[in-house]
Amino acid sequence: MARIIASIQRRWGADGGYRQVLALAVPLILSTGSWSLQSFINRMFLAWHSPDSLAAAMPAGMLNFAIMSVFLNTAGYVSVFAAQHHGAGQDGRVGRTMWQAAGVAVIAGALNLALIPLTPAFFRWVGHDAGVQANEVMLFRILCLGAFPAVMGSALSGMLSGLGRTRAVMWVTLAGTGVNILCDYLLIFGHWGCPALGIAGAGWSSVIAAAVQLAVFAAIAARPAFRARFRTADWRPDGKIFWSLIKYGLPNGVQNFIDMAGFAVFVLLVGRIGRNELAATNLAFNINTLAFMPMIGIGIAVAVMVGQALGRNDPARARYSVRSAFDLTFAYMAAVAALFFALPQLFLAPFRAQSDPASFAAIGAITAVLLRFVAIYTLFDAFNIIFSSAIKGAGDTKFVMYMIIALSLGVLIGPSFVAITRLHASIYACWAIASAYVAALGVAFYLRYRGGQWQAMRVIECPAPALVHRPESPPVEC
Q: N or C terminus: fewer CB in 10 A for the chain?
């Protein structure tokens, strides 16, 4: 025990140790955790509103987010460019790189507008109950209107994260979460003289919050100190930088799309089993965000720390930071998994509070079992988040994309389709398939990280060798 304590103390204060990881990651954990809180409260309000609203929220929301994730994560990959530029002493190149993401935001806005007329036909094809379908169509259409501000906000947030300004990201995100929750309360139920819009109110709340966050991020980037050091007023198009962002950022966006789309298809397929099973799946995934989404923040921090270290051509520091982040993440995930497994009713209590007891009883019973599946695969999510983030921080985004495409189709979607449509499997068999998918991802990313190819990768032009040479560093791919 004394040896373990001494090891923890050494790693706490070392470069790339626990303290440095937490200093960068805690604001991002709070930022992504606030999204979890926002989603949790949103679904809780909809559970209070009606079972149809609750059942519709996850399919429509996940489908929208799956599409948006291509653009959000392509634009958000500005964080890795900013981190590597900053580590290499190239701060003056950060602003123009960030502005190239504006083209991604414009494309996202146009595509989402084009999807609005197609929405009713899609949800009819899915085949959910008529009341659920109407709510799905309404929510999805409204969410499409918030594409541009959300994607541009992701680019600005990514720039600040890559520069290590994670506290600014935290405060802006918390403010946006507050706006979203307040608008949910006002617009879903019609409080304080506002119209009672039901699930449409939840959609408009998300759009309003995205616009508010974009405005505040833009104000930060427009400050004189930022304009001078990072040239954030340099908005001119640059084809070379834009295509470099697409080269590395688009695979990052596609892999997030495939991952989200895989789970969206999984949820849609579960809807064929029955409304209670669909609602229980929605609740289980929503509760899972309490564990998963905060750790997305530490994943962003890992990518930034790896990017900054590789910008200085110091892969040893990158490896040390990754190990520190993994230790912290696994400890957190293990604690949450124990709670999910032992005390599922603790997490169901807020949803049960204002719901109809008769209709919620069956949903709650199924969800309690599903949370035990969540407890198991949450441990593998620690591997998934940390090691995929580490290799993406170097620029190894294509491997992540290819692996998620292969495993999503081969382990999640294909088996789920056969199990539900051909074998008429139970909800629990389907969740066993989903758990196997998450476990497979975690193992694949860990093995890729251990292979070490990422240490020689860069997404930026190489800085002068004399400034960054490390004798132990592998040859760099620029």
A: N
Nearest alpha carbon to residue 375 among 445, 438, 420: 438
Within a domain: 461: yes
- The boundaries of the domain holding residue 88 are 9-466
What's the pTM?
A: 0.81
Summarised one tens digit per residue, pLDDT across range 315-360 is 999 999 999 999 999 999 999 999 999 998 888 887 777 666 777 8
Residue 375's Cα: distance from chain center in Å? Answer: 19
Q: What is the pLDDT of residues 36-65, one digit of tens each?
A: 777 778 777 877 777 667 777 777 877 888
Residue 210 is encoded by which pair of tokens? Answer: 């995205």
Is 2 contained in some domain? no
- What's the token pair of residue 15? 């470069």
Q: Report which DSSP code applies to 355.
A: S
With CA atoms as reference, report the closest residue to 389 among 327, 454, 439, 478.
454
The tokens describing 64, both together, are 């929208």
DSSP state of 412: I
Q: How far apart are CA 303 and CA 282, in angstroms?
A: 30
Q: Is residue 474 part of a domain?
A: no
Domain count, the chain: 1
Please list the residues that pair with 477 across neighbouring strands.
457
- CA dist 147 and 108 (Å) reads 6
